[in-house]
Amino acid sequence: MARGPNARDWFRRAMRTFDAAIALISGFVLMWWMPGLDHTDGIEYPLLILAGSLLLPACGEVLGLYQPWRGRSIFSMLGVFTLGWLLAIVLLSLFLVMTQSTVIFSRAWMALSALSALGAGLLMRTVLYVVLRRLRARGRNMKRVLLIGQPANIARVRQRLMDLPYLGYQVSDTLVDEAPAAAADVDCQDDLVMRVEALAQRSVFQREFDEVWLTYPLSCGDKVKQLADTLLAVPVAIRYFPDLSDARLLNHRVAQVADMYSIDLNYSPLNGPMRVVKALEDRLLGLCLFLAFLPVMLLIAGLIRWRMGAPVLFKQYRHGLDGKRFRIYKFRTMRPHASAPGKTCQARAGDQRVTRLGMFLRRTSLDELPQLFNVLQGRMSLVGPRPHAMDHNDLYKNAIDAYMQRHRVKPGMTGWAQVNGLRGITDDLELMRRRVEYDLYYIDNWTLGLDLKILAMTITRGFINQQP
Predict the structure, then answer these.
(1) Phi, psi for 277 (deg, rounded to 5)
(2) In a domain, 260, yes or no
(3) Which residues touch 418 (CB under 8 Å, ≥6 apart)?
(4) Out of 2, 183, 215, 229, which could bridge 149 as a Cys pair, Cβ 3.0 to 4.6 Å?
(5) pLDDT in tens, 25-56
(6) pTM of the predicted model, to two decimals?
């Protein structure tokens, strides 16, 4: 008996209902609790609460919030919920402005109601996510998987599932294909094909698995098609995991181009709507941080001018999105000095060029604050791969595979590599290779939630810099 679709539909309905309920309860509780709130003479407040409770799950549905959680990152889910909440707030605010109804409602009540709904939604999802992970790690709430493929590929997938038990996938059976991997030689009487046909016949209404996973090299495309056609009679999810171990995948996806399906091995992850989301994140959070740190920046600028003289800012060209040049800003930390043309000489421990004030700014990363202006200009992001000196790019682009893929997104003030301790001097090839791997991981796994996680980690571990 099929369990997956019914359980998924029930869970999606429950989550939509919960999101509507938290918006409804938050609004009404605060409406009655807040002193001096005039809500007794009309229905404006209840109507606004009702509109918000319907709009929140509707925005979440548009953004794919209620898709199955299994295999998804918690930061991805929390980020999508936050984005859906923000979209609902923006739409509701636009409606109030267009109808000139903003004066009717208490701004404090609207802000507290919105923040309460956001907090309750994030908290509930975090708790439920942790509970489900623990249940699945203990063998509960499992998805039973039938693996079909060649021995090496089956072993690879099976080991991956063993390494990640909390995802909740369990291999219930395997059908091993011992035939040679020849795409042009598909025998309709192949033993494996016959076994799959028999399996499909007896598994139409009763089966011992919830999903079928096919794992073959790309050279076995005809075999995969034949098996997929045979399994269409079984009402379960059929997934194909191609063996692409010889190809470097950067945020790969399946796309449809000219009525043909393709696997994009390398594409910018921030195209379309996600580029807008990232831009909103940078502009809104960047403006808030710029205003919050403005007094600190003015104080630092005054100290630099007093102790070190002009100029206050250090300006240097770096490569940005798609390799385009832009001018990066930092507070000056060194005494004036001459460098060889086209060669960047980085600061090292005990470097006499760095002043005492400059050393403090470097240790606390306060010298990076002017890059908030780069963010507001749209040339940098709050989070992304750190921009290296241009001569370092020339040095490493041929020494490290996929090095220049870092420029598929905007450079950031902070990044996944930096919060994991990979920062400072970049003249060690192995350290640079590790840093690039972290940068590519960020690009490959970008979500709004991951950005928020990196920003939070920057506060706790990213400011203090032990490098010169």
Answers:
(1) -60, -45
(2) no
(3) 386, 458, 462
(4) 215
(5) 998 888 888 776 665 556 788 888 899 999 99
(6) 0.58
